[in-house]
Batch of 4 targets.
Target 1
Amino acid sequence: MNELLGLVFSPWTEKARWALDVRRIPYTFRHYQPLIGEPALRAKLRRLTGRVSVPVLTTDEGRVLDGSTDIARWADGRGAGPTLFPAEHEAEVARFIDLSERALSSGRARALSRMLADDEALAEMAPGPVRRAFGPLASRLGALGVRRTLRKYDGHTADGEAHRQTLVAALDELRATLARKTLVGAGPKTLLDSFTFADITMCQALVNVAPPAELKLGAASRRCFSDPDLGDRYADLIAWRDELYRAFRTS
């Protein structure tokens, strides 16, 4: 059986899960524990130094794939369902992947910075057994993990306003693309001629504006991931995202 290692609250993991689900690829999901699980992850990836992260898929053939895009490409060659990477739109899909990554990186830096000022959210970042064992000290352990993530992705060195502008620019481009599209038949608009990985990846660009209900977040963490001002500004994009979830996200 294919096994996906990931974080239930991660938009990168959600990209991989959505691709596997929409292509009807069977798999088991295993939650990754940051810090504690890193030695085993390094061994799995055969990467003793450098940055490692999830999602990581171990296929039933013994292959190990890391990163949501590589996992989605693998899924696209198997199973059944919408073609996620149509050959005629390869360049456009790649452009939306890059746009989504920029939005997600900036959104993550902003959300984690907000989290550092929220003890309840920090405690939610600690595993359940740790919260029960350490009580109020769990928030300090959560803060260690959040600061480590910010260092890992260089989010601590960048200006918060610069991150906001990067996210806004990505969402403005998404809005402009959708405005040029004509709705054909029933169902939501898609970024290309049909539902593809471009739609999956750009849906996640909105995670740090208003997380979808499907993303497993505690109440305090959801508060930190949300930006009410941008949520009002991009209510139309949130509605588009939610419509895509209803139409194409069945698992």
Note: The first strand starts at residue 2 and ends at 6.
Target 2
Amino acid sequence: MDSDIQLPWQQERVIRHSQRLMQSFYYWTGRSLLYANGSPQEIAQALFDAPFVLVSHGTQSDPIFNYGNRRALQLWELSWEKFTQMPSRQTAQEVVQEERNRLLSDTATKGFSNFSGVRITSTGKRFEIQDGILWNVIGEENQMFGQAAVYSKCKFIT
């Protein structure tokens, strides 16, 4: 297997994106996403291996995931390659799509939002997210790169 697929945090674009995730989170919330020191690659690895779920999607009209840390990949039961080809809308069942769309829109306007909600894994298992934060991912010149979400609390629903 290709080492870039096994270790996505070693890819230059993922290292840059990890920096954007960290900087954007701090910009909107005034808090650090992760307390980590070292080179950009070491920080990207720490973010990938962090003890919380972290995902982000791009700015497409039907946004595609462009990042998922190890916890996210385990939760959704997908490889990095498959996860980063999946539209983020597929993580929510149709009955909660309207709520999810409202959250994304509100966040686009405000910069960040707190959220809770039910999502679904790639194999159909439902889980509830509690105390999540969704924020706009921006670049050095405030250009929009998409949105990201982080949470530590989630439980499967039977």
Note: The longest strand covers residues 126-138.
Target 3
Amino acid sequence: MPENRKNLLAAGPLSAVRALESCTAGELALLTEDYAFRSRLATACKEIAERAYGQNDRTALAEVHELLAHVYDRDFTGVDITDVDHERQPLLRDVAAILEQAMLGHELSRIDEETVTGHPRSGPEYVRWLKDLVNAHPAGWHPLYHEHIAQRGTREDLRLLLAQETNLDPRFDDILASMQMGRTGGEKMEIAANYWDEMGNGDTGLVHTSLFARTLDAIGADRAFIRDSFMLEAGISGNLSACLGLARRHYYKAVGYFGVTEYLAPRRFRCVVDTWRKLGLHEAGITYHDLHIGVDAGHASGWFKNVVAPLVDGDARIGRDIALGAMIRLNTSQDYLDELLRRMRDRSPVAVGAEA
């Protein structure tokens, strides 16, 4: 591989990054020390990011997010003993830093500065202000859940929705584990309590990632279906979740981002649970969502009271970053729910009949 590294980027950065998987430890060391190669890799990443976000090239956007997904898959995957000497992180972080800057720059450019400034400076008042911000956003009560799924959702609608939800749900416990690093006191304890709930409070049969896997099995959303039906918009949301959850400097944005996630889950999951039961699907498959209606309501309350409010009380400047994270979550959630609703309506018999 190192002998051919001048040609490694011929097919683009995604191909080059994938090729790192087959490099030996020695080849990776040579690539890491080759700053001319790393410069070319960085340039290739900047070029594709510019096409994606500067020129609205959807093919380039998909490649940007495949690259980021590859990096995050490495971050969330346990290491095999045969891989312990293979150091890919310097190269992967080069890639991620450039693409994350483009991704976050785009998302931040969508937010009106007046939306995230002028907020209350006391914690309890800020929490009320933030909840109002969430409820006023189109994603707060999205018609995909509260009209389509609730009133006319089908088994295939639920299957398609759950395939998109793999962008976060299987990783949420690890994100919470990461967010605890460097935090102290009640703030850390709240995140830890949330994490322990995700761990089934010590009962391996109730670990939430396992429950979610059972839901996918029950609805027939296997790996092939998820791969074939997974939308770019869902992937973008998942990459943002990973980016904010793993990076220390984005911690305050992550507080807002995942606070919104917890706050909206109960109202959304209620629609899923009611439709699941109305369709007579296997009861064991809905345990995950049924459990989260109550659990996430408690998580949201605790998150706002013990994480958000104390942070703003401690330094009111943090309020802007929390609000930015909340808006990023709301905007990208709306993006993929809008696209998902369009797909559901396009294939629904009611929509076809209406068009005829």
Note: The chain has 18 helices and no strands.
Target 4
Amino acid sequence: MVIVVAGGEPPVATALAGLPPGAFVVAADSGVDGAHGIGLRVDLAVGDFDSASAGAAGRVVDAGGRVEQYPTAKNATDLEIALDAALDRSPERIVVLGGAGGRFDHWLAVAFLLASPLYASVDLQARWAEATVTVVRRSAELTGQPGDVVTLLPVHGTAGGIRTEGLEYPLRDEDLPPGTTRGVSNVLLGTGATVSVRSGVLLAVQPVSPRTL
């Protein structure tokens, strides 16, 4: 698997729970600082580095990692470049840490980026301070605590043949069209749930409960 550390809001150490310690790490711009802040060694740093701390790229090189610098004026965000670099390693799974804080348009852009067909070959999840977002293209396992909220949002069209196990309000071979609120505010019955789709893409959003902050 590959861990991608986004710029912007730094990740918290608890986001590393369950992730293998030897995973390849790609950092986007100031994600270098976020990665170092939770003890991760950066194998590859990408971006224009306009928001990283002074010397961030140098620290990556000093530790044996690589740096790929891009111009500030470009047609993709640093996170998209980092995701593409992660995909080049043909992982089964990519987990994105940090980077969702701040502007609402950035939050939406990242959410839609995660669901892009470009990443259909890989299991993809983002762990932010505000929420964990899991992309469901076939089937996904969700974890949490009993009573945690789970919202299922279809993107890029209707998500068809949805089945859930472990949620209070089950879906049994049902469709969710784009724009529906039917999937909002479901609830974990235990510590895990399974969500699967026959067609389409879902974002399974698990907002962070105040008790876990």
Note: The mean pLDDT is 93.
